[in-house]
Amino acid sequence: MRLRQHSEIAIISGAFLFGFALFFKTELANVALILFYAAVVFNYFVSKSGLPKLDRKIVFGTTLMLLISILISIVHLKDAEPILNTLGRRITYLLSPIMFLLIPNKQLKVLTKYAFKGLIIGGVLSSIFLILNILNEYYFTRPFLSIDKDILNFYHTNFYFTRIVDIHPSYYGMYLITALAYIYFSDGVKYKILNVIFSIIIIVSIIFLNSRIILFLFFVLHLISLVSFFQKRINSIFKTLMASTIVFVLLLGVLFVTTKSTYAFQRIVKETLWELTYKVDDNYNSSGKGDSRLARWHAALNLIIKKPLLGYGVLSESNELLYEYKRLGMKSAAENEYNAHNQYLGFTLEGGIFSFLALLCFLFFNLYISLKSRDLLFFFFVISVSSICFIENYLIRNAGVVFVAFFSSMFLFNYVKNDS
C-alpha cells in the first residue's frame, strides 16, 4: 500500500517538475520527464491495474502519428544512424502515449492539475527573473521609474529578453501562453487574487518576448475568452459576437496607441509584412539583411515538387535546402543553414505527402476531440500548436517535442478515459 502511495506521489511530482523545468532548461525538463515515466511504470506494476479498453481510432490522435516520417525514411536507408538519431530525439512521441495509457483515470485528473501548476509557477518565477533583469539593464542608464519607448526596443525584447535562460522566445512563449490559458479556462490556483497577479506577470513577459506568433495567439486567447465570457451572460449568439468584437477592438485600439512608436510594434507590423513577401537578400530593417520566410517556403516547395511521395528522409531537410538556397541566390539562408521554418513543409520534405497527412490527421483529430468535449483549454492548445507549425519547425526541436508529447497525450487521454 505504501509503495503504491509513494509511486502516485512520484507521478504527480514528476508532472509538476516537468511543467516547472520547461522555463529554465530543456535538459532539466527531460530529466523530470524520465522520472515521470519511471514512476508511471513502477506504479502500474505495483497497482496491478489492467489496461483500459479504448477505441483503436484513438491512435490517430496520439503523437505516434508524428513518427511516420521516420518510418518512411527507411525507404531512403543508406545508413541507419540518421534514423536512430532522429528516433532518439523524438522518442517521447512514442513513450508519452504509452505512459498516459498506463495511468488510471483518477490519477490522471490529479497529475493534470499539478502539471499545469508547475507550468504556472515556473512561468511566473522565470518571468519575474527575466523582467527584473531587463529592468535592471534599462534603469542602468536612466532615472529610476522613468519609462519611455526604449523599454520595448531591440535590446530589451525577443532574444535579448530570454538570453539568460537560453530558450527561443517562441518556444518560451508557447509555455507561457498555455499557462495563461489554464488560468483563464480552468481553476488556475486556489486564490483569485493570485490568478490576477500571475496573469499580469505572464502578460508583461509576453509583451517583452515580442514574438509575433505568441502575440497572435495572445489575441486569439483573449478573443476566445471574451466570446466565452459573454456567451454565459447573453443568450443571443449575435449579441455575444457583437459584444466580443467591440471589446476586442477596443483592447486592440488601446494597445495600438500605447505601442505604435516602439520598436516592438514596428517589428510586429513591418517585419511581418516583409516575412510574408518574397524577398531575397533584402533589408528587413535599417540594419538587417536577409531572405524572407516566404522565399524559404518557396525553396522548400521546389524540393517537395521533385519528391512529393516519400520526401528526402529524416535529417536531410537542411542539406537539401542549402543547395536550393544557393541555387536561388539566398545568401543569408544558406550561411545560416536555415530549415524551412514551417513544420508542414518540414515533415513533407522528410517523409513526403504521407508524413504531411499524418501531421494533419494528428492535429484535426485532436481539434475534433477538443470541440466534441467543449474543452476550451484543449482547443486552444491544438490551435496554438497548429499555428506555430506555420512559422517554426516546432515538432522536431527538443523543446517542442517534449512539450507537445506530454501535454497533447495528457489532454487526449483525459478525454478518452472519461468518455470510456
* Rg from Cα: 22 Å
Q: Summarize the helix and strand pattern as letters.
A: HHHHHHHHHHHHEEHHHHHH
Strand order of the largest sheet: 1-2
What structural category characterises the helix and strand content? mainly alpha
General form: globular
Fraction of residues in helix? 55-70%
- Average pLDDT taken over every residue: 87
Tally the helices. Answer: 18
Task: Summarize the model shown.
The protein contains 18 helices and two strands.
Walk me through what this model shows.
The chain is mainly α and 420 residues long. It has two domains: 1-50 and 105-259, no CATH class; 68-102 and 276-420, no CATH class. Helices cover 70% and strands 1% of the residues. It is built from 18 helices and two strands. It has helices at residues 2-21, 26-47, 68-72, 80-89, 92-102, 105-138, 159-162, 169-185, 192-209, 212-231, 237-259, 263-275, 293-306, 317-327, 331-335, 343-372, 376-388, 398-419, and strands spanning 282-283, 289-290. Strands 1-2 form a two-stranded antiparallel ribbon. Strand 1 and strand 2 form a beta hairpin. Helix 6 packs antiparallel against helix 18, helix 8 runs antiparallel to helix 9 and helix 13 crosses helix 14 (317-327). The model has no long low-confidence stretch (mean pLDDT 87).
What topology emerges from the helices and strands here?
Layout: H1 2-21, H2 26-47, H3 68-72, H4 80-89, H5 92-102, H6 105-138, H7 159-162, H8 169-185, H9 192-209, H10 212-231, H11 237-259, H12 263-275, E1 282-283, E2 289-290, H13 293-306, H14 317-327, H15 331-335, H16 343-372, H17 376-388, H18 398-419
Helix pairs in contact: 1-2, 1-6, 2-5, 5-18, 6-8, 6-9, 6-18, 8-9, 8-10, 8-17, 10-11, 10-17, 13-14, 13-16, 16-17
